[in-house]
Design goal:
Elements (H helix, E strand, L loop, with lengths): L1 E8 L8 E3 L1 E5 L3 E2 L12 E5 H7 L14 E4 L11 E4 L2 E8 L8 H6 L4 H4 L1 E7 L1 E4 L3 E4 L9 E7 L1 H4 L7 H11 L3 E8 L3 H14 L4 E5 L10 H8 L2 E2 L2 H13 L10 E4 L2 E6 L3 H22 L10
Parallel strand pairs: 5-6, 12-13, 12-14, 14-17
Antiparallel strand pairs: 1-2, 1-6, 1-11, 3-4, 3-10, 5-9, 7-8, 7-11, 8-9, 15-16, 16-17
Helix pairs in contact: 5-9, 6-7, 8-9
């Protein structure tokens, strides 16, 4: 059980959030009076009151100084998994991301050398709307039974990112994952740049804690094909059997399947698989491994040792 100590909003992006006694929340926007709302996963930001109190031993900061919407005592949000749900009266929030990048012009970081929001802050979406007030109790709800697996899809394409080529592989992958029962949380189209890809893989695995990330493109022999190398810098535990199975399936169709440099592996509790950029090849690769991958994710999220003999 927790309690709201402050509700903070700002009517315009780039301005400091200030305290208000109450707020109305909607699933379509988040906090109605806050400029950072919208139809996205970061509608409401939360920060533990205990983390702010610890920071205040270095320098005094008002509530809202870190850009947080809700200051809540009683929870260490960073220790909770993404998808945790909270009830505040009639309102229900679902945690969607842990941490964020700190803005370069963050006043707090300039004064102290650090900002706790990127490390301790979390974000949530509004599942059920209503009105909340300072002093309201906050309850952690039990997790839903048999939640769907959550995925993200990244397309790597220089021409696609410039709008010079239509991305057909990404939408097809999303369609196939959805048909298999996954909820696709995010899709994105990036240029073939290692730095940008690594940043997104880390954010999706560590911050959003999705179960599966599929990339398409950048696995060939071109000098701009950097996806395998970038992925391996992020991956903590390689899973070589997955790309081996994908290449074996491709080799049944064309001998050029041996040219794929696809890799796969685990970061924390997220499985990352790199797919070819071809619409046809990416579909063939997914079909080759989608069933065993579901079993692998079950093992990855099992609390004890999974029974692989079943």
């Amino acid at each position: 059980m927790g309690k709201i100590l402050a509700i903070c909003t700002s009517p315009k992006r780039g301005t400091v959030k200030t305290e208000v006694p109450s707020a109305v929340l909607t699933p379509e926007w988040g906090i109605v009076s806050d400029a950072h709302g919208g139809n996205w996963h970061r509608q409401v930001s939360l920060l533990s009151a205990e983390k702010i109190e610890a920071f205040r031993k270095k320098i005094w900061v008002d509530y809202g100084a870190f850009g947080e919407n809700l200051v809540i005592e009683g929870f260490d949000f960073r220790s909770l998994p993404v998808t945790s749900r909270f009830a505040i009266g009639d309102v229900v929030l679902e945690m969607t991301q842990i941490g964020k990048e700190c803005h370069n012009d963050c006043v707090i970081k300039q004064q102290t050398g650090e900002c706790i929001m990127p490390r301790e802050g979390v974000f949530a979406r509004v599942l059920k709307g209503g009105e909340i007030h300072v002093g309201d109790e906050v309850t952690l709800l039990p997790p839903p039974e048999d939640p769907p697996l959550r995925a993200a899809v990244i397309t790597l394409s220089d021409k696609g990112s410039r709008g010079e080529r239509e991305d057909k592989s990404g939408p097809l992958i999303v369609e196939m994952l959805t048909a298999a029962g996954y909820v696709v949380e995010e899709t994105m189209l990036l240029p073939d740049e290692a730095k940008a890809l690594k940043a997104q893989l880390i954010r999706l695995a560590d911050g959003r804690q999705v179960n599966l990330i599929l990339t398409t493109g950048g696995t060939g022999f071109s000098p701009r094909d950097i996806t395998p190398e970038a992925a391996m810098e992020v991956i903590q535990r390689p899973t070589p059997g997955i790309p081996e199975a994908m290449r074996a399936e491709s080799m049944k169709i064309t001998p050029k399947g041996c040219l794929s440099r696809s890799v796969a592996g685990i970061r924390a509790r997220t499985l990352i698989i790199t797919l070819p950029g071809s619409q046809k090849a990416s579909a063939e690769n997914i079909l080759a491994v989608i069933d065993p991958v579901a079993h692998g994710l079950d093992m990855l999220y099992s609390e004890g040792s999974a029974d692989c003999a079943k």
